[in-house]
Target: Cation transporter
Amino acid sequence: MSCSISLEKKLLTFSTASALVFALMGIGLGVWMGSLVILFDGAYSLVSLFLTIISLAAAWYIRSPKAGQNNANINLIEPAVIAFKGFAITLMCGASFVSAVLAILAGGREVDTGLALVFAVINLVGCLATYWLLAKRGSKTKSALIEAESKQWLMDSVISAAVMAGFIIASLLSYAGLAKYAVFADPMMVVIASAYFTLVPLKMMQGALRQLITVYQQNDEAIFDRHMQKAG
Model:
């Protein structure tokens, strides 16, 4: 059991470090190049970083001796953290969607697709490696927090793949003499990615909220049974 707890904390710490690297790289390069989709990718990593820190704190508290003295509420922590994660990611996707639509209406954005493609490849490889490690090693911990964490990285991997595909399309359009359409590739990728990936955090929230309701009902039944025993 102690090995499982130690592995859970190590994986969450590794995820935190990875999210920090990709967040700084994505946001810095996104601002410098004026690319909404790279900025979106970096912002997602930044949100993931804060959410991973919350997961790490939750894992530490759940395994602490203090938590053992409060068994009635301990089962609420994991689903509450996962529900909050889903809400935060949904909020970020919504804000990114609005920004991208405004950019399209303003005439699109011109981006250096060559440099953007290099970033996309590096980002995709890094995200896939982090997801693979969390999914493979995390299965040994049987932790809902690690499972939610691996889903975050899977989303980030698919976003990175979509970014790469979008910049390849933009490069082909420019090469074919259709540069006036290529400027819409960057914000369109954000629109598609943010709209599609809102579904994943919404499902996370749905499952976590269902679990919260179940735990609340179980706690209420336990309290009622204790009162009945005292009354009897």
